[in-house]
Please model this.
Amino acid sequence: MLVGKSALLINEMQIGVVDAAHTGFPALAAQVTARGIIPRIAALADAFRKAGAPVFHGPVRGRPDRADVKPNSLITALSLKGQPLAEGSHRSSYVPELVPQDGDFEIVRTSGLITMCGTQMDAVMRRMGIETLVLTGVSTNVGIPGNAITAEELGYYVVVAEDCIAGTDPDTHRTIVDNQLRMIARIMPSKEITAALIG
Model:
């Protein structure tokens, strides 16, 4: 069940994040492939567009000098050791199947860990009357829980499309979905979300 007007967020589905040949997170890229989330996200995005519901893309595209990145967590410290996902670079590009379509929204951030914090995402959704946010993309470890908690705290209903997200390994994914995400979000397969949009 989706409450009110719904929006879809596709989080960090970029070549430098989820493509095995270019990522600094090879285990995550392997799980994206193993779980087959890319075609399911693409199908869900098409369903949202056909239903007239907005599709948001949440990429990170950092400054080349990364002057606004603070190494105040392990993941940001590790990211500073790798190549930046700089604006205009191949690594910052979307995976081909999930390039934004006409009418989609891009919520770009240059630093930080989640799309819902420190961006215009909340303001845009409020102007559009969005009540439910459906989350897809990566990662189950950080980005999906961070967005889910923030969206819930801001008053949105949150749905996680479980077959459209991936983490660094199956056990971590399952633990976070079963013990954390289910407490703050409704966990649904993408086909049920599509059916709810149509219904």
Summary: The first strand starts at residue 5 and ends at 11. The longest helix spans residues 170-184. The two ends are 10 Å apart (CA to CA). The mean pLDDT is 94.
